[in-house]
Records
---
Amino acid sequence: MPYSHHTRFENMYPAILVFCALLALTGVLLDTPQAILSGLKTIVMSEDALITDYVRIAGLGAALVNSALVTLVSAVILHLSKEPLNGFTMVVIGLMSGFSLFGKNIVNIWPIIFGTYLYSRVRKDYFGKYVTVALMSTALSPVISYIGLDNGWGSPILSVLAGVTIGFIMPPLSAYTYKIQNGMNLYNVGFACGLVATLLVPLMTSLGADPTTYYRWATGYNHIFAPLLTGLCLIMIVGGLFFCGKPYWAVWAGYRRLLHTTGRAPSDYLRMFGFPPVLVNTGINGLIGMTFILITGGDLNGPTVGGILTIMGFSAFGKHARNIIPVMAGVALGSVVMHWTISNSAVQLACLFCTTLAPISGYFGWPYGVLAGFLHSSLVLSVGSPVSGLNLYNNGFSGGLLAIILYPLIIDIVRHRKLELQDEDYFDIMSHEEPQTPLDNEMVEPEIEPEEFHAEHH
């Protein structure tokens, strides 16, 4: 039975609409209508494999308008599905708006979404239970674009069938992968998509396809994106502190409590701490991500801004300053001792998306976060090759592999404890909006005694 439209966070939809309007307005102000329409056509007709920066191939205006359209469509789908609004809603909005700057467009997302809808019909369940998985599974949208547009192989009908199949199998697969990662990889659907792509791309190649990765990377936009992102982050911080109906000191106290959580999934900060501290956390994390790119000599463009928006989205579901900085530092450390530089485009993305492993830092301590980021910086540069850039959440796949390896090793060798897989239901976690206390969310290892638990969390 679907949930009611009325939720604790019903004001989130107007805020999302304002965000979409700001994206579209900025795009219109930065380019001409003719250039935007031409750019949107270029985006739709692109194969979209990593790295396809829409700012580079279509222009800044078209990229922002595409992001606005995809985000608006996502919000409408969430609303029509009667999905309860919670922290994961912000995750979905951050992902859809960010990745629609480099891979997702207003056309290639539909077959996968319909496939998941079909899965809900077959299961005789309501679509709202799976809608977030449907939207996040559009990480494989480049598969639809490649099959539908590639010269000499594939067809639009085949691309739709492939997308529907992907959308249909993603709910059960993502529910399973969620359990085996023990909440240590926040980009769970990215890991599931990576598994699908690892099977799908060789199959396509055997049938005559030849998917290839791309390097379409825009430069020279720091002077535009830096003020825009800074303004957005400051609005969130100031709005959370002073314009949400709570004293600023109470909001700041809530944010400080948030910083002491591990971030291990599921960590719905919106349900745990309320909207004001989450807004502050979102703004601060966005500034951290942007600063990291700028001080390392990186570029603010479609992919990196998409990465920053992703961090901001997950600021409502597991990420905060204390657990993301060590992992990002691990990537920076890798650039010192390995045969690549931190200014490399793929490494810049790794600097941002490595924060999928933030729970390792929060749960086991910052040295393990640095280790996770260090290992991730190399692994992510290799795992994308077998799937030819057709999985947009490539860092989620890398993060999942590391989570599966590191978690049992740390638990058994360092903690000397018995490994147990978590048994939380993946869909139930994302289908509620009632308040949740921080301690309800902290998934403590069964061997920890109450006194030790109290010491660790207070």
---
Amino acid sequence: MDKPLLSEAFNYTRRMPQNEREAFAVFCALNVIRLGATEKVISNDYANGIAKPHVIKVVAYALEHPELNLIDNVYIDTSCKPNCIYIMCMGVQFSYHSVPLNNETIMSFVVSEKNQPIKFDKIKKKQMAVELFEFAKEVMANSITDRMIVQEKVSQLSRLYV
């Protein structure tokens, strides 16, 4: 992984998505940032200090603006340690552990009936983070909204990283 790609991924954490394609790209960018920390290109503290709070900001924004349809579904599991948030976006699942639940919208959601379990799909997106981020940029550039295309690409990538 190179620094320009990480820099580009960090740019996606500087704004709130306005549609599902942008949200998909944000979650893919966050996985690039996590991969950068895993590969020691950036520090784990720095990556987590940016990525984890941004996950919560985007999810809270999505919950506050349901009319934008940014995410399909979200589940915040506080029963496990560390906590885990599962996000479905464009039919693709993203998960993040140890996210800060220090947001009023998030805390209200956690205790609501809307916080329904989502089963982990066992596809680790961090392994395919670079390819998935490049695909997310294509999704945005070409205004792809067909979830079958998106899900098929994730399926193809997951077979490469088993």
---
Amino acid sequence: MKYSKLNLAKEAIRHKGFVQKIPDIFRMVKTWRRGEYPMRSLDIILPLLGMLYVISPIDLLPEVAVPVIGVLDDLAVLSLAIPKLIREVDKFLLWEADRKYNAGGAKIIDAEIVE
């Protein structure tokens, strides 16, 4: 049976929102830490540090001292961290689906995915 990379990507990603991808993020980190998933350390550490910064009570611009600007720095960090994290999770889901179908003996047809 043949699968195209485009159909494989659609099936792997399934257009989930960020909140629904949280279990996938944990699975991606766990697989990466075991050494199974090839990924640069910065590609996962930087978005996770951004998320940790937003959750942390320590801010460069505290919400108490500067109410509006204090929230804006958190939003700026989120606007950079979440899209990067989602792109990495989408790559992971594609890798995971590709691995699943290759294990079943399916033939994958290479194609370029253009956004």
